[in-house]
Design goal:
Strand order of the largest sheet: 1-2
Largest sheet: 2 strands, antiparallel
Structural class: mainly alpha
Number of strands: 6
Strand content: under 5%
Length: about 400
């Protein structure tokens, strides 16, 4: 037996023996690395499970808070309806609100343009002083105490400012037309740009015929004539009334973007036939959210996956690829519309912060829309059960 082992040992060269030892050592090291990675992976999985559990708990907490908020909103709605029936101060507010409605209808003013004119910093909100200027421009006189009372009912969050988008919706519900024929032209231009997949940056260059990075009223009129628009001069003047914040007779690129992304976009949304319907762009983002939840991936992971060149920014083509991958069908022009809405800095590229901001806005608006529908349904049931009155007597509404 010893002789056999000796012959076997002698048959293996020293070099082969050394190589075997090195291979064994390498295998042990690889095994240690794999064991370490396996432990790291196990910890990551455990952390993922913990995160998912915490996310579930937080989601449940948010759901409970939303339900509580619904109860509060319902109580406030019931209180509002009863208040209108019995409170003279609230009736005073309704009296002036109806005066505003009447003046807007009689003079065929565009309330969107009216508010935007006095919103000098283009913030989407009016101070008490700016709101007073709006009221006076309509020929309505309010005593300081009456203005103070009215402002209390429209300054819902107590910031001293009126976010007039919601006030415009109230006017629409009262039968006020929010746009004029000239406003329709602006919306038609915006829709034409997006339909032809032209970004706002590209459109600005088209209007800026002499390349001085400014668009004059003359350039706009000339292009409108070429486009064979009805009443091109009035349409061009309407654009400058809305967007020329500096009042220098020119639109710079920032004013141009604000015109379409703030004023025109809001105007189109506010005049939608179904007021409570969620903006289609937000619905598209909610489709992305559903796909994320199904695949258990984060928004950051989605962004990184479609950022194929790893530049940290999304191009138009990369965003298009996302919807192709998710099999979300967008009509011609809708993708350009969505891209413009997300691209807040007008760079023709979307960074993650812009993507996150728009996604968060979509989620918040979707939750708001759902709460409004639920609240409306519950108020309707309370009306049917007689808990709150069907309608306040018109004579009482006018009583001061």
């Amino acid at each position: 037996m010893k002789l056999m082992f000796k012959e076997l040992k002698d048959s293996v060269s020293l070099e082969e023996n050394l190589m075997t030892k090195i291979e064994n050592k390498n295998l042990k090291e690889k095994n240690l690395i794999l064991t370490k990675k396996e432990e790291e992976l196990r910890l990551l999985l455990a952390q993922k499970e913990t995160n998912e559990r915490e996310l579930f708990e937080k989601t449940e907490k948010v759901r409970e808070l939303i339900e509580e908020n619904m109860e509060v909103e319902l109580e406030l709605e019931v209180a509002r309806i009863r208040l209108e029936a019995i409170d003279p101060v609230y009736r005073q507010y309704m009296h002036f609100f109806q005066l505003i409605v009447t003046k807007l209808k009689e003079n065929q003013f565009s309330p969107v343009q009216l508010f935007a004119t006095f919103d000098r910093d283009n913030s989407g909100a009016l101070s008490k002083r700016e709101f007073e200027e709006v009221i006076r421009s309509l020929g309505i006189e309010m005593l300081p105490k009456e203005l103070e009372t009215f402002f209390l009912f429209v300054d819902l969050d107590g910031t001293g400012l009126i976010e007039y988008k919601e006030f415009l919706r109230r006017l629409k519900r009262a039968g006020v037309k929010l746009r004029r024929p000239e406003d329709d032209i602006l919306i038609a231009i915006y829709e034409a740009l997006t339909k032809n997949e032209i970004t706002l940056k590209q459109a600005f260059k088209i209007f800026d015929k002499n390349g001085d990075n400014l668009v004059s009223c003359k350039e706009v009129k000339e292009l409108f004539v070429t486009m064979k628009l009805n009443n091109p001069e009035k349409a061009a003047e309407s654009i400058f009334e809305l967007a020329d914040i500096s009042k220098d007779g020119y639109l710079n690129e920032d004013e141009w973007h604000k015109l379409f992304l703030n004023i025109v976009k809001d105007l189109a949304n506010l005049t939608n036939n179904d007021e409570e319907q969620l903006d289609w762009r937000f619905r598209v983002m909610m489709s992305i959210k559903e796909a994320m939840e199904l695949q258990h991936v984060s928004l950051r992971e989605v962004f990184d996956m479609i950022d194929t060149d790893k530049s940290g920014e999304l191009t138009y083509g990369e965003l298009k690829q996302l919807f192709d991958n998710l099999n979300i069908q967008l009509r011609r022009g809708e993708l350009a519309n969505l891209f413009n809405a997300i691209d807040r800095d007008h760079s023709d590229k979307i960074n993650f912060n812009e993507f996150l901001h728009f996604f968060t806005e979509a989620v918040n608006e979707a939750q708001k829309s759902r709460r409004k529908r639920e609240l409306t349904d519950r108020v309707t049931k309370l009306r049917e059960s007689g808990v709150i009155p069907e309608e306040v007597d018109e004579e009482n509404k006018r009583t001061m």
